[in-house]
Amino acid sequence: MRRGVNVYVLLVIAWVVAMGYFLLFHTGSSTSNPLRQSLDRYFSGSGKNNPQRHSLDQHFDGAKDRINSENLVHNGGENLVQNKDLVHNGDENIVHNSRVDSNDDLVHDNQDLVKVASAIAEKHGLVLFTLLNDAFYDLASSWLCNTERMASLHSKILVLTTDVDTGRRLKRRWPAITVVSMNVSAFTGALEYSRAGYVRLMVERTRCINRLVQAKVRMLLFEVDFVWLGDPLPEVLSHKDADVVGVGVYGRNHQLICGCFLLLNPTPATEKVWSRLTEQMEDLYKKVANSGSKTAVSEATNDQTFLSSLLNAKYGGVKVVYLPDDLFPEGKWYMEPKLRAANPNPLVIHNNWVIGNDVKIKRAKKFGHWFVSNDSTTSDVICNVTAVSNVLAKGPKPST
Ligand SMILES: *[C@@H]1O[C@H](CO)[C@@H](O)[C@H](O)[C@H]1NC(C)=O
Ligand SMILES: *[C@@H]1O[C@H](CO)[C@@H](O)[C@H](O)[C@H]1NC(C)=O
Ligand SMILES: *[C@@H]1O[C@H](CO)[C@@H](O)[C@H](O)[C@H]1NC(C)=O
After folding, report:
1. Cβ of 373 less than 6 Å from ligand 3
2. Whose CA is nearest to atom 5 of ligand 2?
3. What's the CA gap between 2 and 233, in Å, rounded?
4. Alpha helix (H) ranges present in the chain?
5. Whose atoms come closest to the Cα of 140: which ligand?
6. How many domains does the chain contain in total?
7. Which InterPro entries does the protein's record reference (predicted)?
8. What residue's CA is closest to ligand 2, atom 13?
């Protein structure tokens, strides 16, 4: 008995020493350092009160198309020089600039994108792919809370972040998802829709998607300014003979597809469409390569309009299927009571047609579609399980 107690005491002492050692040598150098975290938070929030951003935070009205989460804040002009250096020569430089500490297996290097995505697609039949920067951390957290309990959904998710810290934060909080990080400071901070900085990020996203499509990885491209009232995969995957399955932009009679939610089946037609789209985006890149990140770029030239033209022209024989508008409404659903009354149980709602993440978050909160808050004890986010359950209970019941 006494002997047992002594062994126990020794074990406790050993544990305390080990923990002390761990805290001393690990927290100081990593991003879990509280000081580092508060600095990160300070800098990632620094665009919030910018008057230019506020002037954009208004309802968008008229024939504009993709007013979604990327329509954001600010990126210091200083980043531009680095942006040119890093992006100008294509993927390769970005890849070389995205080395991650070798003793840190939280996030993978962008070089591994195809390998990592292929492994997920092999196991689950597809990969759910999104590209995020630090400005999307809260929206991403809320969406991850939203979908956390959907069967094996998180294990199908591959998030590509533009910086390593955001990748690590996400992976630490959401161990079931897979994270790949770039390390491109020009892509951090909020980038405004239809501005050169944003367009360059979309060029990079198109290149990454192209790498996956050409490697025959089946993917659902998604964005995080969405609420999912149920798992849309059964509906999305039910269109067996389509090359591309997507969501139509509101009011455009399925002539304009949203670049926000796209199933890409890796068929020869999809490969042709995506390699042509990548060429078009590379041409666009050349035009904006030397522009300041806030220089306006016409909406007539972006990934979404180029893709829509290719799809409308049935380029490469591509077959596109649009998902039912009532199940996949856009942000107009939030804005027009008539649309909501006519369509009370959508499956997936895009929180778009407004500009600015804080406006989107406010709207999501108003409709009970916000699922996350800060936890003062762990300094990480916690999910509002009640809000998630309420929303999932409202989704359409799967037809049998
Ligand atoms: C990211 O890039 C910067 C500047 O190029 C470099 O100093 C830093 O070490 C890189 N970080 C990682 C994790 O690779
Ligand atoms: C958590 O706190 C940070 C720092 O104040 C803030 O930037 C962030 O928006 C908060 N997140 C949530 C989900 O409230
Ligand atoms: C959680 O969600 C419920 C339902 O939307 C809401 O009433 C409650 O205030 C939320 N709790 C927190 C801490 O945000």
Report:
1. yes
2. 41
3. 60
4. 2-22, 34-44, 51-56, 79-87, 91-96, 113-124, 137-147, 164-173, 196-214, 233-237, 268-288, 303-312, 332-335, 337-342, 357-366, 385-394
5. 2
6. 1
7. Nucl-diP-sugar_transferase, UDP-D-xylose:L-fucose_XylT
8. 373
Q: What is the pLDDT of residues 339-381, one digit of tens each?
A: 999 999 999 999 999 988 999 999 999 999 999 999 988 888 9
User: Does residue 62 surpass a pLDDT of 50?
Assistant: no
Domain of 234 in residue numbering reads as: 64-394
Mean pLDDT along residues 270-276: 98
User: Is position 38 within any domain?
Assistant: no
**Which ligand neighbours the alpha carbon of 181 most closely?**
1
370 contacts 386 by C-beta, under 8 angstroms: no
- pLDDT over 70 for what percent of the chain? 73
Does the residue 114 lie in any domain?
Answer: yes
Q: In 209-256, which ranges are E strands?
A: 219-222, 226-228, 244-248
Considering only CA atoms, which residue is closest to atom 8 of ligand 2? 138
Ligand 2 pocket, Cβ-based, cut-off 6 angstroms:
41, 45, 138, 141, 372-374, 381
The pLDDT of 247-262, averaged and rounded, is: 96
Residue of minimum CA distance from atom 11 in ligand 2: 374
In a domain, 189, yes or no: yes
Structural domain includes residue 277:
yes
Which CATH number is 195's domain given? 3.90.550.10
pTM score: 0.77
Check residues 92 and 158 and name the one with the higher pLDDT: 158
Lowest mean pLDDT among 102-106, 199-203, 219-223, 264-268: 102-106
β-partners of residue 320 are: 244
Nearest ligand 2 atom to the CA of 381 is 13
Residue ID of nearest Cα to ligand 1 atom 6? 97
* Bigger pLDDT: 311 vs 103: 311
Mutate which of 384, 388, 394 for ligand 3? The one with the most ligand atoms within 8 Å of its CB, which is: 384
- Residue 97 Cα, ligand 1 centroid: separation in angstroms? 6
For the chain, the C-alpha Rg in angstroms (whole number) is 22
